Amino acid sequence: MQTLTGLGVSAGVGQAEALVVSPAPGLPETDPKGEVKDDLATVQAALNKVADRLDYRAMHADAAAVAVLTATAMMARDPGLGFSVENHLKSGSGPAHALWDAFDEFCEQLTAAGGYLAERVTDLKDVRSRTLAVLAGLPEPGVPTIDRPTILVAEDLAPADTATLDPEMVKGLVTAAGGPTSHTAILASQIGIPAIVRCPQARSITSGTKLAVDGVTGTVLVEPEEEAVAVLIARAEKRKAVLDAVPEGDTHTKDGLRVLTLANIGAPADAIAAKKKGAEGVGLFRTEFLFLERQDAPTKTEQVGVYSQVLDTFDEDAKVVFRTLDAGADKPLAFADLGPEENPALGRRGLRLSQVRTDLLDTQLAALAEAAQKTGKMPYVMAPMVATTLEAKWFSDRAREAGLGVVGVMVEVPAAALRSSQVLETVDFASIGTNDLTQYAMAADRLQGELSDLLTPWQPAVMQLVKSTCDGAGGRLIGVCGEAAGDPLLALVLVGVGIRSLSMAAGKIQAVKAALALHTQAQCEEIAVAALAQPTPEEAKKAALALADPGMEVLVS
Ligand code: PEP
Ligand code: MG
């Protein structure tokens, strides 16, 4: 038996034989050129065919898959793609090469954007493979028909394939690439298939090999021994019992301290899915996702529509937080480029960009105010990357002038965390972005995988900055909306230092609720004191686990 490890992204244990999904077709050897206009029409027709097929599948898919299939179809219909193909045809490429290069450009932009957007690259490459197959007159690439229990193993899985998988037949997914916010991960957990991503050793698995997978710990057992599988199953059953025992409704600690459990979203469809997963509201709507990949900013009317949809998803008194445009650095905007910078992560990003492009910010604030009127619900609005008291005041004045009543800032720069009592003076709430706070506190680029030891929010220095923010909050509601909030054990530490609102990927909410239900406020405080006293992230985690309820053992990976 061999044990491989990846990132568990969809809980559950499965065992079956592996089916390795063969790679998508590459560029054809010959690519005859015709008139630009004719070649463009051929490529457009192929793209439309792919989009139509995806839309057709969306019509016959269940609710969880519809949004992904429709979004993928929209990529195929993106007019920007057509323009780019035309440019490549005009500079002498044949249709297949023009298509390939146009997609490459889009993929590069998304990869440079990082995070959620970078994980959309898989979706784009899937559209490209399907279109190339149409151009070459080949059958659609992807997962073959599955008629017996199987664990799919792939380099990465296309969302259009994942969306229509039958959990009765597909007992697990293992991909070498992918990430926790890739559509494969999101869909797998929606459909209920155990899934593991970022498991490079999976490349050595061949079809027919017996596998067992645990989607919580990220374990893949190759040719597993019976006892090892029994251990995985027993752990999964225990975890299910703990999750099932979580009381329904609002989130509380064991002794009744109210903590909000909210979702991070990037689009209105995410809000609907998050509500189904128990989100009480939204702690972070990354509104920049409406702006990226576009040649022009979305109009006020378009924004009012999107914001209203999100507000309407939740009850009147729900906390729904809109973060204003967080562009620049790893999320460049075509229409708000302030020129090249030596260190973009330390440059004119976030609020600093909004202070230059006040037109973009003011339209956004006006759209939020109009959405509030239209829906009768009061949005929370917050600015990203606030470092100083003056910046916080500048934003707060502007948002209130626009008619917004609940104004906050993100605390993701150590300076703001250290001086929170002054920085928060003019605002109503704050949300700590632990992803950037960790990057800036540890001076470690968050996009640099090799620095992952420094980049964990378990770093005592990062936890101390979270505590410092809470200590200076003067009674204001302080939340966390970075990845840290979705770690059930770390959530206890966060509540222990004063955090009362946790916002995370929707799939993580139930486990965090379970963790809080197992502990009293005093226990969280005790765990926090112990974790913060440790010299390293590993020791902090160990100290927290040692004081936590034994039920936590099955909730942590
Ligand atoms: C963060 O920095 O923790 C955060 C939530 O914002 P983003 O990940 O979008 O930078
Ligand atoms: Mg951030």
Based on the model shown, name its key terms:
557 residues; Glucose Oxidase, domain 1; binds phosphoenolpyruvate; single chain; 22 helices; 14% strand; Enzyme I, Chain A, domain 2; alpha/beta; TIM Barrel; binds magnesium ion
What does the overall shape look like? globular
Oligomer: single chain
For the biggest β-sheet, the strand order reads: 1-8-7-3-4-5-6-2
Bound molecules: phosphoenolpyruvate, magnesium ion
Model regions low in confidence, pLDDT < 50 over at least 5 residues: none
Number of helices: 22
CATH superfamily placement of the largest domain: Phosphoenolpyruvate-binding domains
Q: CATH class of the largest domain, please?
A: Alpha Beta
Strand segment tally: 16
CATH topology (level 3) name of the largest domain: TIM Barrel
Q: What's the structural domain tally?
A: 3
What average pLDDT do the residues reach? 91
Radius of gyration: 24 Å
- Proper CATH architecture of the largest domain: Alpha-Beta Barrel
Largest sheet: 8 strands, mixed
Tell me what portion of residues adopts beta-strand conformation.
5-15%
Structural class: alpha/beta
Query: What is the distance, rounded to the nearest whole angstrom, between the alpha carbons of the first and last residues?
Result: 21 Å
Helical percent range? 40-55%
